[in-house]
Every structure is written in structure tokens, then in C-alpha cells.
């Protein structure tokens, strides 16, 4: 009898573990939705140099570099969770038009790059991009780190660990776990979530000026999720764009203007 009970418990335990693993994989698929194909240079819509970012000697990531006009600052652009860097040109093009230098790249696992994306892996990729800029002679104080959506979860811990000039966060969240806690029991989220992108934990160590822009009709990352992040950042201003969602309308209805004004005020013209 005891053996039967133990067998049943073992089967149930195995089922529970398998179920949690399946849910873990499901949520990874929600967090990371990379495009398999490399971005086409034609998608850049402005002149670029194709460059290689190396987080490790054996890992090469594709990127695009557009040099700044004389005297202008540089933006390191960290894109969202889907597609490849070519899909984010509507957010990048206004920066180039304003004269800023821009470095944009695909994370590992994105745009045909090798590797497996995780929160720490993407942070290492972004740090390698900063190192690339440093080798090009771009001073850290003249670099703005600009994260959009998932990229904000990379930008905040990056700025907490590295010196930069300013930080822009478009449609940010405090952490992936924070998003999950609003929908599921805490124990469940903690059990299935490995990649937390915990900006709230890193925020007190970000002392550079920070601009948050968020749409009040964002249904992907609700606007309320950026409130605690703004409160945790020592030097942040938060702008809510009325009527804007999570897509390019966030920028077309005022977000881009606020970002350019912020960059001019913090990094100079």
C-alpha cells in the first residue's frame, strides 16, 4: 500500500515539475520573440556602417553604426522583445535626423545571431556595445542609453553598472515579475519565471538623468507599471502621452519630441 502511495506521489510530482517546466518555456516565449532573419541594410533608411559587437571572443553580434554630426552626442538604442533591429527604425530615424550618433544592434538569439537570450545575457550584450563605443572614442558621458519596451529592462541595470550621460525609457516596466504578480499568485510567478529584468532593484543605483515616456493606452505594458520605477530612480522625469499605446503612436503623438528635448537638455547641442 505504501509503495502504491509513493508511486502515485512520484507520478504527481513528476507531472507538477513537467507542468512548471512547460509554463516556464511558455513564458520565455512571451518574453523573447526574436526574428530569425538578419536585418537588411536597406531597412536602415539612413547610411550605416555594419559593425560587430563581441560580448565574448566567440560571440559576434551584428549592429549598425551611424556616426554623430560634429559635436553631437550618441545614443545606444536597445530594442524590444520581437523581430530584429531593422523593425525599430521608426524610433531610431528621428535621432539620426537630429544629428545624433546611433548604435543599434541585435541581441544574441535575434536577427540570426547565435546564442540564447536571457536577462543577464542581454545585459552583457549591451555592455559590450558600450565597450565598442568606447573603443571608437565615444566618451561615456556623451552616450544616452535608450531602451524601448523589453530594452528598458536592459537599459536600467546597464546604467546602474556603467557610467553614461543619460537614460531614455520608452514604455518601461519595473520587472517582468511585477507584471506577472498582477495576474497570478506570487509563488507561481516565482516558480516559472527565470528572466526577471528587474529594473526596480537596479534603479536606486542609476544617478544619471532619466526620461520615461509612456502611453496611457498601453495595453502591453500598462502605464501604471512605470510609476514605481519612476519613484525608485533618483533623477527621473515621467511623461505620460495621452491616447498613446505601446507602438509607434507613442512617439508620433509627442514621445519623440519629449525625447529630443530631453537629450538636448542633458547632453547639450
Describe the structure.
The protein is built from 9 helices and 10 strands. The relative contact order is 0.12. By secondary structure, it is of the alpha/beta class. Helix 3 crosses helix 4 (152-161). The strands form 2 sheets. The protein has an 8-stranded mixed beta sheet with strand order 2-3-6-4-7-8-9-10, with helices on both faces. A two-stranded parallel sheet has the order 1-5. It folds into 2 domains: 1-31; 43-267, Alpha/Beta hydrolase fold, catalytic domain (Rossmann fold). Residues 207-248 form the Peptidase S33 tripeptidyl aminopeptidase-like C-terminal domain. It comes from Rhodothalassium salexigens DSM 2132. This is Serine aminopeptidase S33 domain-containing protein. Residues 74-196 form the AB hydrolase-1 domain.
Q: Describe the main β-sheet briefly.
A: 8 strands, mixed
Number of helices: 9
Count the E strands.
10
**Alpha carbon gyration radius:** 20 Å
User: How do the helices and strands follow one another from N- to C-terminus?
Assistant: HEEEEEHEHEHEHHHEHEH
Q: What is the overall silhouette?
A: globular
Strand order of the largest sheet: 2-3-6-4-7-8-9-10
CATH fold-level topology of the largest domain:
Rossmann fold
Number of domains: 2
CATH class of the largest domain: Alpha Beta
User: Approximately what portion of the residues adopt beta-strand conformation?
Assistant: 15-25%
Mean pLDDT: 90
Percentage of residues in helical conformation: 40-55%
Structural class: alpha/beta
Q: Indicate the low-confidence ranges by residue numbers.
A: 5-26
End-to-end C-alpha gap: 80 Å
Pfam family, one: Abhydrolase_4
InterPro entries: AB_hydrolase_1, AB_hydrolase_fold, Pept_S33_TAP-like_C
Protein name: Serine aminopeptidase S33 domain-containing protein
Domain AB hydrolase-1: 74-196
Amino acid at each position: 500500500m505504501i509503495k502504491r502511495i509513493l508511486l502515485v506521489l512520484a507520478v504527481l510530482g513528476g507531472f507538477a515539475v513537467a507542468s512548471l517546466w512547460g509554463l516556464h518555456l511558455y513564458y520565455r516565449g512571451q518574453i523573447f520573440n526574436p526574428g530569425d532573419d538578419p536585418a537588411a541594410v536597406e531597412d536602415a533608411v539612413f547610411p550605416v556602417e555594419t559593425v560587430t559587437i563581441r560580448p565574448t571572443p566567440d560571440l559576434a553580434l551584428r549592429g549598425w553604426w551611424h556616426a554623430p554630426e560634429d559635436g553631437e552626442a550618441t545614443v545606444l538604442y536597445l530594442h524590444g522583445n520581437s523581430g530584429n533591429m531593422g523593425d525599430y527604425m521608426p524610433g531610431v530615424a528621428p535621432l539620426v535626423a537630429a544629428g545624433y550618433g546611433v548604435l543599434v544592434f541585435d541581441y544574441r538569439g535575434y536577427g540570426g545571431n547565435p546564442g540564447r537570450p536571457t536577462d543577464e545575457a542581454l545585459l552583457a550584450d549591451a555592455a559590450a556595445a558600450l565597450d565598442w563605443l568606447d573603443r571608437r572614442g565615444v566618451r561615456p558621458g556623451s552616450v544616452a542609453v535608450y531602451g524601448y519596451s523589453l530594452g528598458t529592462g536592459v537599459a536600467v541595470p546597464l546604467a546602474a553598472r556603467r557610467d553614461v550621460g543619460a537614460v531614455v525609457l520608452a514604455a518601461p516596466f519595473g520587472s517582468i515579475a511585477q507584471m506577472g504578480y498582477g495576474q497570478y499568485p506570487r509563488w507561481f510567478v516565482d516558480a516559472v519565471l527565470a528572466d526577471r529584468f528587474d529594473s526596480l532593484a537596479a534603479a536606486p543605483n542609476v544617478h544619471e538623468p532619466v526620461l520615461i515616456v509612456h502611453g496611457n493606452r498601453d495595453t502591453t505594458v500598462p502605464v501604471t507599471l512605470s510609476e514605481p520605477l519612476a519613484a525608485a530612480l533618483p533623477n527621473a522625469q515621467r511623461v505620460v502621452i495621452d491616447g498613446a499605446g505601446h507602438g509607434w503612436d507613442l512617439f508620433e503623438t509627442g514621445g519623440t519630441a519629449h525625447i529630443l528635448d530631453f537629450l538636448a537638455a542633458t547632453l547639450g547641442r
